[in-house]
Design goal:
Layout lengths: L2 H7 L15 E4 H5 L40 E10 L5 E2 L4 E5 L25 E5 L5 E7 L10 E7 L5 E8 L2 H8 L22 H4 L3 E5 L3 E10 L2
Parallel strand pairs: 2-10
Antiparallel strand pairs: 1-9, 2-3, 2-6, 4-5, 4-7, 7-8, 9-10
Length: about 230
């Protein structure tokens, strides 16, 4: 989906999602990390665990809108994939798999969740293919949190052949998460900060999203660059 079209028209008909306004809040890696990140460095993005709830059948989830029946603050996710073996030029034709928890901290496709068994549900999981600019986008909701983890997204980048190039996670600016979690559908402030999260420990500067812009009324847009050895 075209980003300008999303910002202009919003996502009418999907829950309560409407257009992103002109006046927005924003946060980037320099703001949240407490130090300057060399965004221009051409090195592979942090390798992180797939977590206990990876996608089981990603080829069956080729879709841009991954919301399903979940509710929450709307989130447009724009991922650009770059190839460090080609001077970080955009990587075309790569699969981007994404998965995240819902507003209450539950993952689909698995039992033993905070609010029950979601084995037969497929919400908040999807796959898209990068375009000629190396971009893939998803329509989602701002993820909730669960005990022991800071708010995050899971990503896997794969070649069109299915070969995995990188599994990583993306963290969120804490001030924005606090604002989101004070709204209806969420369960209050997170219990684990980015600095306390064992997955992001020591590398939060490189793991936090490049940019998160928007507000709690109209939703947010997250952009992130993922660099792989393609």
């Amino acid at each position: 989906m075209d980003r300008k079209k999303f910002l202009k028209n919003g996502m009418a008909g999907i829950g309560s999602i409407i257009a992103i306004p002109t006046l927005i809040t924003s946060c980037n890696k320099d703001d949240d990390a407490g130090g300057v990140v060399d965004a221009g460095s051409c090195v592979v993005s942090p390798v992180e665990t797939a977590g206990p709830f990876p996608i089981k059948t990603p080829a069956d989830l080729v879709k841009e809108n991954i919301i399903g029946d979940r509710t929450g603050i709307p989130l447009k996710i724009i991922i650009q994939v770059q190839n460090v073996n080609d001077n970080c030029k955009p990587l075309t034709g790569a699969f981007v798999d994404i998965w995240q928890c819902d507003a209450k901290g539950n993952y689909s496709e698995y039992s033993g969740q905070l609010d029950g068994d979601f084995t037969n549900q497929k919400f908040l999981r999807g796959r898209q293919t990068t375009d000629t600019s190396g971009n893939a986008s998803f329509i989602s909701i701002y993820p909730g949190w669960y005990p022991g983890r800071a708010p995050h997204l899971h990503l896997e980048i794969l070649k069109s052949s299915g070969q995995s190039l990188l599994i990583t996670q993306v963290a969120f600016p804490e001030d924005i998460s606090k604002a989101v979690y004070a709204t209806t559908n969420y369960k209050g402030d997170f219990d684990t900060s980015n600095a306390q999260d064992g997955i992001f420990s020591g590398d939060i500067n490189r793991s936090i999203a490049n940019s998160v812009t928007g507000n709690i009324t109209d939703g947010y847009v997250l952009t992130e660059t993922i660099k792989v050895s393609g």
